[in-house]
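Reading a protein record of the kind used here takes only a little practice. Think of the row as the fold of the chain written in a discrete alphabet. A record is reproduced here so that you can trace the correspondence yourselves:
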Amino acid sequence: MTTKVEQLYLEAEADIRNNNYHEAFEKYETILYEEPGYAPAHNSMGWIYKTQFDNYAKAENHFRASMQADPLYPHPYFHLSTIYFDLDKFDLLKAHLEKCLTVATVEKAWIHYRFGMIEETLCKYDDAIKHYQKAILNSFNNEKITDYKADIERCKTKLELSQ
């Protein structure tokens, strides 16, 4: 049986898919007023703040609140890492990804991919390749494995050019 909060959340998610951000935002606010620790609503509010307002501070606060409310809810871990990457906060991102490695519901291949992105951005191509290889070893998705192989080849090309 779906609760009133869950029903309102599903309606808000439908609003997002239909680009009705204002309506979704109001519904998330209502949910958080009724149930302040509802992790999915905090995550979605964070997403709106990040993507619609470019307000990284408020987005980060909502992602953190979501993780605190439900440490196994995986989505805010992904979104918070995007903020840190976008803002070149690599030290925070590395610490966050280390924490992600301890969360059972966060995909490990994705974590190593993000580590690889950091190293590649810092021109540490050998380290990036090692992380992309770990991503392959932790992946069960053939398309993703193909993508990770392409990441490795791109790093090899960059490594050649940098020497």
Remarks:
- The chain has two domains: 1-105, 107-163.
